Amino acid sequence: MTGRRRLWIGIQVAVVSILLAFLAYAVRDQWDEALPRLRDARPAEVALACLLLAAYYLLFVIGWQRILAAMNIQA
Q1: Running along the chain, 75 residues long, what does each successive block of 10 average in pLDDT?
Q2: Per-residue 3-state assignment (H helix, E strand, C coil) for the chain
Q3: What's CA 75's distance to the chain center, in Å?
Q4: What is the sign of the dihedral through the CA atoms of 9, 12, 60 and 73?
Q5: What pLDDT score was predicted for residue 36?
């Protein structure tokens, strides 16, 4: 059982590593265009945007929990 668990963890680490490498490759050319925009960004607006995004995802999770509860599915 331990060998199977280690294999599964190794596969997950490999997949996450590949995903992160792909994302880094995809955005490497965009940093030159993003830096001037980041310098001009207002910290309060960035913080507000992050809070709104976090609230959206929280509501999404709560909604799914209610849907699952209505269907009598235990998570």
Answers
A1: 86 97 89 85 94 97 94 84
A2: CHHHHHHHHHHHHHHHHHHHHHHHHHHCCCHHHHHHHHHHCCHHHHHHHHHHHHHHHHHHHHHHHHHHHHCCCCC
A3: 21
A4: negative
A5: 87
